[in-house]
Specification:
Helix 1 packs across helix 2. The chain has a six-stranded mixed β-sheet with strand order 5-4-8-9-12-11, sandwiched between helices. The protein has helices at residues 77-85, 104-114, 145-155, 176-183, 199-204, 221-230, 261-264, 276-290, 304-313, 362-374; strands at 12-21, 37-44, 50-54, 94-98, 118-120, 134-135, 141-142, 161-165, 190-197, 217-218, 235-240, 248-253, 296-300, 319-323, 342-343, 355-358, 380-382. The protein has two domains: 77-264, Rossmann fold; 275-390, NAD(P)-binding Rossmann-like Domain (Rossmann fold), CATH 3.40.50. The radius of gyration is 22 Å and the shape is globular. By secondary structure, the chain is α/β, with parallel strands linked by helices. It binds zinc ion. Zinc ion binds next to loops.
């Protein structure tokens, strides 16, 4: 087991997610074999940090293939721009650098809003397998190549200041060393923008839909703050709600921030542990009680949430199928093998099914439910958390 990324101690309470699971985004052509690993949800006995422990050696678990892409929220962009505006930089002297394709939209927004013309849009994060450990002939672990390329791009900037976007990094970083390297990018001339799921608020919403095997850290705000403070970083962080996506925390790390971390130091309080393992166990029981042996379940939405439901929430004997209309997933084999197959949503006859689980966003789910009911479907429609959606 790797030590806790927050407190560096080893000692966990854990629950098995699966002995042999493919990555949640590992949709592939049938001819390709998929790598499978051991995964468990673990809570640190010392600081309460929740993480996904695995023997998968990649130091950053991004998506598995290039054709897998997820949308990102955008409503908070003006607020980020506002914080950056407060750094009092001459934005003619700034270059923007994206770490992942997920940062491109934000980079374009900031370039336009702050009038930055030197903009470098690259997907250094790439795919998980790019982050497998590199060991030299002398047995020394080397800097992962994508990080070396990212650093090289930033070093080559001719501008006095660099704006570095690495949103969605903290959820996926699996190595303490890599985390330190990223935080080490911060300097008086380099300013970082990040975001991550707001697990405190998600937990309050009563869901565990955010647990999936390509995540590594379910950071609470206080845990992330303690990491930033231990590294002497000045930052501003804010949380926001979105209609489209999960509650998110966003922040800027910059030594030029005036209302900085030191004023917040006193605000760190001991919070009650989030009992995520108990919540996951309760959810497994809820599904078990809901589905009788002769029931059939259709899972609509084959992104990480739908796949996770099949991978480690449902009991092995459940008769289910998986459904998605995404063009990129056509003709592919999903990371789980549904006994009733992998199909499209549109045009599919659900009349034989007693239950449907919709694991898309609520906005999309509402449209799907309307169509299902209009077509005469009378079974139960549930979400990931086994709650009725209508
Ligand atoms: Zn810990």
């Amino acid at each position: 087991m790797r030590p806790c990324i927050v407190c560096n101690k080893v000692g966990f309470t854990s629950v098995l997610l699966g002995e042999s699971l493919a990555d949640a985004s590992d949709f592939r052509y049938a001819i390709e074999p998929s790598a499978k690993f051991f995964y468990e949800l673990a809570t640190c006995k010392f600081c309460g940090h929740n993480s996904i422990q695995t023997n998968n050696p990649c130091s950053l678990s991004t998506r598995k293939h290039d054709f897998i892409k997820y949308g990102e929220p955008t409503e908070h962009y003006p607020k980020i721009s506002n914080i950056l505006g407060g750094l009092n930089l001459d934005f003619k002297d700034v270059s923007i650098h994206t770490f992942s394709y997920k940062d491109v939209q934000l980079a374009k927004f900031l370039a336009s809003d702050l009038n930055i013309s030197d903009i470098n849009l690259n997907d250094h994060a790439g795919c998980s397998d790019d982050w497998l450990p590199l060991v030299s002939s002398g047995g020394i672990r080397q800097t992962p190549l994508p990080f070396a390329r990212f650093l090289n791009e930033i070093d080559k900037s001719k501008k006095p200041h660099q704006l570095i976007l690495f949103t969605r990094f903290f959820d996926h970083v699996a190595s303490r060393d890599l985390l330190k390297k990223f935080l080490g990018l911060s300097s008086p001339s380099r300013h970082l923008v990040f975001d991550l799921n707001d697990y405190d608020r998600l937990y309050e919403l009563g869901t565990v839909e955010f647990i999936w095997n390509e995540r590594r850290n379910l950071f609470r705000r206080s845990h992330l703050e303690s990491i930033l403070q231990k590294n002497n970083l000045r930052y501003l962080m804010f949380g926001y709600e979105s209609q489209e996506v999960s509650p998110t925390l966003t922040g800027v790390i910059s030594e030029r921030l005036t209302s900085a971390s030191d004023s917040d130091l006193t605000n760190i309080i001991e919070l009650p542990a989030l009992k995520m393992i108990e919540k996951l166990n309760a959810l497994r029981l809820r599904w078990q009680d809901t589905l009788a042996a002769d029931h059939k379940l259709a899972i609509i939405g084959a992104s990480h949430k739908g796949v996770s439901l099949a991978q480690f929430v449902l009991a092995n004997e459940v008769q289910y199928s998986l459904h998605d209309d995404k063009q990129a997933l056509r003709e592919k084999t999903p990371p789980v093998l549904p006994p009733l197959g992998f199909h499209s949503v549109s045009g599919f006859d659900f009349s034989e099914y007693t239950h449907i689980a919709i694991t898309t966003t609520l906005v999309i789910a509402a449209k799907i439910i309307t169509k299902l009911r209009a077509s005469g479907y009378t079974g139960e429609i549930l979400d990931f958390d086994c709650k009725r959606l209508d």
